[in-house]
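Hi D.,

Good news: the full-assembly prediction came through. Inputs first.
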Amino acid sequence: MEDWIRRIFIERADLFLKIMNEKWLKTDALVDGMIRLLKDFGIESGRILDLCCGNGRIAISFAKKGFRAVGIDLSPTFIEDAKARARELGVSKMTHFICGDVRRLPSLVPSDVYFDVVTSVWTSIGYYDKSEDLVVFKQARQLTREGGILFIAETTHRDSVSLRFCPSSFTLHEDTVLVEEAKWDALTSKLQTAWSFYAKDGDNLKFIDRIMFEIYIYSVSELTSMLREAGWETVAAYGNLATKQPFSPWTDLNLIAKTI
Ligand SMILES: C[S@@+](CC[C@H](N)C(=O)[O-])C[C@H]1O[C@@H](n2cnc3c(N)ncnc32)[C@H](O)[C@@H]1O
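Then the structure:
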């Protein structure tokens, strides 16, 4: 496992959780939008597989709407939090959270379980070699029934980074300030980022930790070709699934693909 992945999602899962928890606020609207779109493909219920599920916001929101959901993430902290939240929200029986590596899906999910929907949300791709992302989407395809749908949602793509690149910014998450410094290498399509966390104490900031990471940013056409190779045909792209805003170079990528 890449060192930065262990650092940010396992060793400092406490810090990443502060950012991820804020994403819960808009999750029901996002999942409602996905469910509306699924109706166009004849899917009104069934099973969803949430790849890199974090602390479970997508899986739990689907479960609240009557879907059976499996969420997989490599972070034990996120998986424990997801299970606790599912219990609190009364959807434990509808959800199954697995701590594991999505690159090894066949060892985590029984081969006789078929999904209607697969989700990969909030730029959960580009962390490894491209060939490993391909394997994940191929394996997910094998676990999906004919006519099933894949969402790659709320994902950064190459055009948006080129247009909206911001080398430094800071944001407040609960009592923690996150300072982000980034470098964009258009030649390799890699986005290098350093996250520095500070505890806010009145007007003072106390350094907590600094984590560097580098992810590969896909272009839409590249992702579409990779998905085709994995057995998925891209059928639509939006800027926002809740509002059905059209996709553009300025928006995030929300891509819908169907099994080939
Ligand atoms: C940006 S977060 C997105 C979390 C979640 N999809 C959401 O939208 O809230 C990326 C997630 O990918 C997980 N992850 C990274 N590599 C993974 C792998 N190989 N297998 C499973 N999970 C992985 C991390 O632990 C983290 O929770």
